[in-house]
Amino acid sequence: MKTTTHTKPSRGYYFVLHAFLLALTASTVWLATQNLELRRSAGTPGTTRQALPEVDRTWPAQPVVGPGGSAESLHSPTSATGSLVFVFTTQCPACRQAIDGWKAVHTRYGQRMKIVGLALDHAEATWRYTEEHQLPYPVRVAQDPVAYGEALDIRAVPTTLFVDAGGTVRKAWIGPPPTEWLDQHLRTEPVDLAVKP
Questions:
Q1: What is the pLDDT of residues 170-188, one digit of tens each?
Q2: Buried b (16+ CB within 10 A) or exposed e, 64-100
Q3: How far apart are CA 140 and CA 190, in angstroms?
Q4: Half-sphere exposure of 136 toward its Cβ, with a 13 Å CA cutoff?
Q5: pTM for the model
Q6: Which of 3, 88, 123, 192 is most enclosed, with most CB atoms within 10 A?
C-alpha cells in the first residue's frame, strides 16, 4: 500500500502570500478613498459636492518631467495662446472614463491651442498608462504631485484647467471635459480671449 506524503509550504511561500494580501488590502483602501472622492465630485446623493479649484492662480513654477526624464516648465509665460490641461492619476476610474472625451477635445482643438495631460502620479506608471491608452496629446508628470496639486488647488481628479497666455488659471472643471462650453466658446473666439475672465 502506497502512502501519500504532503510537502509543507516553506516560510518563503507564507511571506510572499502575506505580502500579497497586505498589498491587496492597501489597494482596496486606496480605491475606496478614490471612489468616495469621485462620488463627492459627481454630486452623488448623500455626499457633499466637491468644490471647484480656485481660479486666477498663477501657474506653479515647479518643473514637470517629460518622457525622457528631463525637467521642464509646463507653461511658458510667453505662450502665444492659452492652454488646456487635463489633471489626472493613473488609478482614477473617472479619469479612464474621461479619456475618450479628452481625445475628442484634442482632435477638435489641438491645432488651435496647447493641450496637455498632467499626471499627479509616478513617472513609470504614467508612461505605461499613456502607452496603454494611446493618448494623442503630450503628458507630463509632476515631480512633486502633492505640492503641484496644492499649488493648483486640485481637489479631485479628473480636473480640466484653462490657463491663459500669461500663465494664469482662468477656468476649472471637475469631471469629464466641458465639451459644451468648449464648443460654445472656442469655435468662434480666439483661444486666448476665451480663457480670460
A1: 899 999 998 888 888 776 5
A2: bbeeeeeeeebbeeebebbbbbbbbbbebebbeebbe
A3: 26
A4: 14
A5: 0.70
A6: 88
